[in-house]
């Protein structure tokens, strides 16, 4: 095909040939700029952040930001643990979270760098798609909350909600029960708020 184009180019005067070559170079340059590079695609997040309603039986609920990747929901560890009043300390880089679960002897470490969760002297190795780190939080695949911590989370795509079911006496439930007992004692004493 090149041998067919070359004789046609030579038919034109030298100034037209140069402008035609320059236009071809400009077109190629524009195409190269407009084409997406594979390096840019790797910087794009592979997930979508959505708002979900997190509901706990006998407690109530709150709105949280969750992450969806390949129809799997990932829940924010620090937001959930803070809502449930479970001690949690995220690292400055948000690549690990430490704390204790319900009582001080039940320590845990969620470590994204080493892809593992250590809880009650057991080590749970994570796959690379079990945990997601964003600029604001560390997200864990929702079934892992149940498998490791006994916090069974059921996600509903239809209502964009997560229902937490557990047999554990969570700190938030204990705190609510203590407040209710105080209110009942105050009623018996005749004190009204």
Proportion in helices: 25-40%
Which parts are unreliable, with pLDDT below 50 for 5 consecutive residues or more? 37-44
Structural class: alpha+beta
Q: Averaging pLDDT over every residue, what do you get? A: 81
Overview of the molecule:
The chain is built from 6 helices and 12 strands. The protein has helices at 2-11, 14-34, 38-43, 77-83, 142-149, 171-189, and strands at residues 48-56, 60-69, 72-76, 89-90, 96-100, 107-111, 116-119, 122-125, 131-133, 138-141, 152-156, 161-165. A hairpin with a 5-residue loop joins strand 4 (89-90) and strand 5. The radius of gyration is 29 Å and the shape is elongated. The longest helix has 21 residues, at 14-34.
Which terms summarize this structure?
alpha+beta; 193 residues; 6 helices; seven-stranded mixed sheet; five-stranded antiparallel sheet
């Amino acid at each position: 095909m090149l041998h067919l184009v070359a004789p046609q180019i030579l038919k034109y005067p030298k100034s037209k040939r140069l402008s035609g070559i320059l236009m071809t170079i400009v077109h190629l340059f524009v195409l190269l700029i407009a084409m997406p590079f594979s390096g840019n695609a790797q910087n794009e997040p592979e997930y979508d952040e959505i708002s979900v309603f997190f509901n706990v039986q006998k407690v109530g609920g709150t709105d949280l930001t969750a992450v969806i990747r390949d129809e799997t929901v990932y829940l924010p560890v620090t937001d959930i643990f803070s809502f449930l009043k479970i001690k949690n300390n995220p690292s400055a880089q948000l690549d690990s979270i430490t704390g204790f679960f319900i009582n001080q002897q039940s320590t845990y470490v969620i470590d994204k760098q080493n892809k593992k969760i250590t809880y009650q002297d057991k080590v749970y190795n994570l796959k690379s798609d079990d945990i997601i780190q964003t600029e604001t939080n560390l997200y864990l695949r929702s079934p892992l909350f149940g498998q490791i911590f006994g916090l069974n989370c059921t996600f509903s795509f239809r209502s964009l909600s997560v229902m937490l079911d557990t047999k554990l006496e969570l700190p938030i439930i204990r705190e609510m029960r203590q407040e209710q007992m105080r209110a009942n004692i105050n009623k018996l004493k005749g004190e009204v708020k």
